[in-house]
Design brief:
Strand content: 5-15%
Strand order of the largest sheet: 7-6-5-8-9
CATH class of the largest domain: Alpha Beta
Radius of gyration: 19 Å
Helix content: 25-40%
CATH topology of the largest domain: Rossmann fold
Shape: globular
Number of strands: 9
Oligomer: single chain
CATH architecture of the largest domain: 3-Layer(aba) Sandwich
Number of helices: 11
Largest sheet: 5 strands, parallel
Order of helices and strands: HEHEHEHEHEHEEHEHHEHH
Distance between the termini: 14 Å
Length: 309
């Protein structure tokens, strides 16, 4: 089994059949990571480089764990403390890594489009682990997989993305992925954090978070991306939490129980309160577990290996 693409650069490039194949493969790998011996020898002759030009904890650990569960050889590269700080270019950096006979590169970069640039210059398969404010495809895939696992399917489900839509690569990838799978998607948050013309992507827009929660079956709450905002887009974090934060009182006022998600890291008390993040409605920790299985599936399928042991 393989995918129709050589690289995972964004959800936009994937066919619906690719997404379904990733989910089926992740089902098998989820069984692997829940058994006493959590390793398979599928990629024992493959070397994967994790090349992170931007800070990351969860995504990097998740990828590294996925690679090691597949028995791949793993090389970790961080821009801080490397020759990048001395002026080395992106292509030179990666070419030096490839000279060490690396088969696959997992890359996170602050510049939107960097993985596409790299894919045009090197032969190894590229997996986009987040590029600027553009896409974060593996996060969207694990989010959709978690919805499918919890509700039985994604098709026809009402999913709202709440928060900083403008600066969120998770939001864009989620919109592409969920609409491909037949979900109804809404974005909600302050008008200053929702891009103009976003309806052209086939989503609804709501500025009242409570109305959005009443509409949806699943709420994926996104953090405020303060590091990407170059000017003030709302008064204070306290004001944001008051008007747009998801709290227990708000959930209790609904006439139904909805599924709560968050891609992390969580700003507790800002976009979501602890009593919501830690409630039985939350599948946040399931998302983390599913992230390893989904990334194992993607790496395995892109490697073109035929057997899963």
């Amino acid at each position: 089994m393989t995918l129709s693409v050589k690289h995972l650069l964004g959800i936009k490039e994937l066919q619906t059949e690719d997404i379904e194949r990733i989910f089926q493969t992740a089902d098998n790998f989820k069984q692997v990571i829940n058994r006493p011996i959590k390793k398979v020898p599928s990629l024992r002759d493959t070397t994967v480089a994790n090349v992170f030009f931007e800070n990351s904890t969860r995504t990097r650990i998740s990828f590294e764990l996925a690679e090691k569960r597949l028995s791949a050889d793993v090389v970790n590269f961080s821009a801080s403390g490397s020759s990048v700080s001395k002026g080395e270019t992106l292509v030179d950096t990666v070419n030096n890594i490839l000279a060490m006979k690396v088969d696959m590169v997992v890359m996170r970069h602050s510049a939107s489009g960097a993985p596409w640039f790299l894919a045009n210059h090197i032969d190894a398969s590229i997996i986009n682990a987040g590029d600027g404010i553009n896409e974060h495809p593996t996060q969207a895939l694990l989010d959709a997989y978690s919805i499918k696992e919890t509700l039985g399917s994604v098709k026809g489900k009402r999913v709202v993305l709440i928060g900083d839509i403008m600066h969120s690569r998770v939001a864009l990838s989620n919109i592409f992925c969920l609409t491909k799978l037949g979900a109804e998607v809404m974005v909600a948050g302050p008008p200053t954090l929702i891009p103009k013309h976003i309806q052209s992507l086939g989503v609804k827009v709501e500025y009242d978070v409570k109305k959005a929660l009443q509409w949806c079956e699943v709420a994926n709450v996104l953090r405020i991306q303060l590091e990407r905002q170059h000017k003030p887009l709302f008064s204070t974090l306290r004001e944001y939490a008051l008007y747009y934060g998801v709290n227990k009182q708000m959930l209790d006022s609904l006439e139904k129980e909805i599924v709560i998600m968050h891609p992390g890291p969580i700003n507790r008390g800002v976009e979501i309160n602890s009593d919501v993040a830690d409630s039985k409605q939350s599948i946040i920790l399931d998302q983390v577990e599913n992230g390893v299985a989904i990334r194992m599936a993607i790496i395995y399928l892109l490697s073109g290996k035929r057997e899963m042991e």
